[in-house]
Amino acid sequence: MTPAFADPASPSRPLHVVAADALEPWLEAQPVAVAVWLRDSGFKAGLGEVKLIPGAGGAVVAAVIGSGTAKARARMRFGLSKAVAQLPAGDWHFEGLPEAQRFEAALGWLLAQYRFDRYKPASGMLPGLKCPEGVDEARVLAMAAGEFLTRDLINTPAQDMGPAELEAAFLALADRFGAATQVVSGADLARDFPMIHAVGKGSDRPPRLLSLRWGTQGPSLTLVGKGVCFDTGGLNLKPSAGMLLMKKDMGGAATVLGLAQMIMQLGLRLRLRVIVPAVENSVSGRSMRPKDILTSRKGLTVEVNDTDAEGRLVLGDALAWAAEENPELLISMATLTGAARVAVGPDLAPYYTDDAAMAAALEAGAVATADPVWRLPFHDAYEPVIEPGIADLDNAPGFGFAGSITAALFLRRFADHPRYMHFDIYGHTPSDAPARPKGGAGQGARAVLAALPALLGI
C-alpha cells in the first residue's frame, strides 16, 4: 500500500487538538452545546483521546483529540495518530495544532495507515488527513513510503520471502528509480564471497549478493543490510521459540531498502550504493559446521564457533566489498544480536561509530524524526575476545558478555573505514503502539535520512 494525504481541495472536517492544560480555556471558547457535550462525555484531553462532535442533525461535524501533557508526549511519540483508528471515514484537517508538533503528527498519521493485507484483506475505510501547513509533504511521504516497504518485506513469511524473492523486491525497487544492479551467485559467489556462500550453501534456496547503484553526483554513501531470509541457526539449531520471529532476520536488508527508497524518492544529491547478502541459514549435509574455518573475501580467517552467528559472516564479506571503493560514508544495518535487545529493548536502535561528530548528527536526526537511537561503544579492550588463536577471528566468542559490542568489533575488522556506522536493530514491534502496529518495523532509517546533510554535506 502507499501512504497518502487527502486532496487539499476536498471538503474536510476539523480535528481540534487540545492540550490537557489548555482544555478549560478551549471549552469556554466553544459553543455551549459542544462544551456541555464534551464535559458530560468525560473528555480530559489525554494524549490520543478522541471525542466526536455531532451537529444539530446528529451527524459528526468535527472531532477533538487530546495532546495530553508535555510529559505524556515525551513518553509516547505519535500519540495523535490514535485518531486514525477512531475517526469515521472521510477527510480531516488539524485545528489548533502547534507548529512544533505538525511534522510528527503528519508522519504518525501516515504511518498509522499501514496495513499488511497480502494474506487477509484490510476491512473498512481509513480517514484521510490534509497535510498540515508548513510540513514538507514530499519528505514526510517519502519517509512513510520507505517505512511501508520495510514493514512489508519483514512481515512477509519466509515461504514467500527467500533469497530469490528478496532479490525480486530489490530489483523492482532499483527498476522503479532507474538504478543499476548487479547480482552475484553460484560459482562467482563461492569464489569471491566465501563467507556468504558458506552460510547459504546449506539451503535449497541458493544464496546471492545484491548490489544497486543510483545517482551520479555528490558524495558517496554505501548501505549494507543483512538479508538472512530465515535463520534456523544452522547445525547449532535454534529451539522452536527462537525461530518464531526469524522471518525478520532480513530486517537489516529491509531497512536499508526502505532508506534507499527515501533517498531516491527525494532525489538527494549523492551517489548511493546498496549491498544486500541474501541467504537462508538452513540445515543439510551441505551446511557449514562448528569449528570450520572460513577464509573471507578480505583474507581474514574466521573460526565458526556457532553456526547461529551467521549474520556477521555474510556482512563481513559484504562490508569488505563495500570498503574496497572507500565511500565517504559506510553504514550497515542488521538484526544481529539478542544482546542488543537485552541492553536497550525493542524500541531503541543501538548504533556504533568511532566518530563523535557523526554520532551528534545522527542523534539530532533521531530527535527530529521520532526515530530513537542509542550509541554503544566500539570498546577496543574487547578486541582480544574475538581472536581465537587458531584463526584471525572468532564468530562467536565464549566471552559471555557484551555480545552486541563484540559483534560490532567483528564487523569493524571488515569495514576498516574511518566513517563507518553500524546499527544492531530489532526490526519488530512486539505489540501495537501508536503508528507502529505489531510486526515488522524499520529502525534508524529516518534518523539517518535526517542526518545526511550533516554527515555528507548535501
Automatic annotation (TrEMBL):
Pfam families: Peptidase_M17, Peptidase_M17_N_1
GO biological processes: proteolysis
UniProtKB keywords: Aminopeptidase, Hydrolase, Manganese, Protease
Domain Cytosol aminopeptidase: 149-448
Cellular component, GO annotation: cytoplasm
GO molecular function: manganese ion binding; metalloaminopeptidase activity
Residue stretches in coiled coil: none
InterPro entries linked to this entry: Leucine_aapep/pepB, Macro_dom-like, Peptidase_M17_C, Peptidase_M17_N_1
Residue ranges of every copy of the M17 aminopeptidase N-terminal domain listed in the record: 14-125
Keyword Protease attached: yes
Similarity comment text for this entry: Belongs to the peptidase M17 family.
PANTHER family for this protein: LEUCINE AMINOPEPTIDASE-RELATED, PEPTIDASE B
UniProt protein name: Leucyl aminopeptidase family protein
Protein species of origin: Gemmobacter fulvus
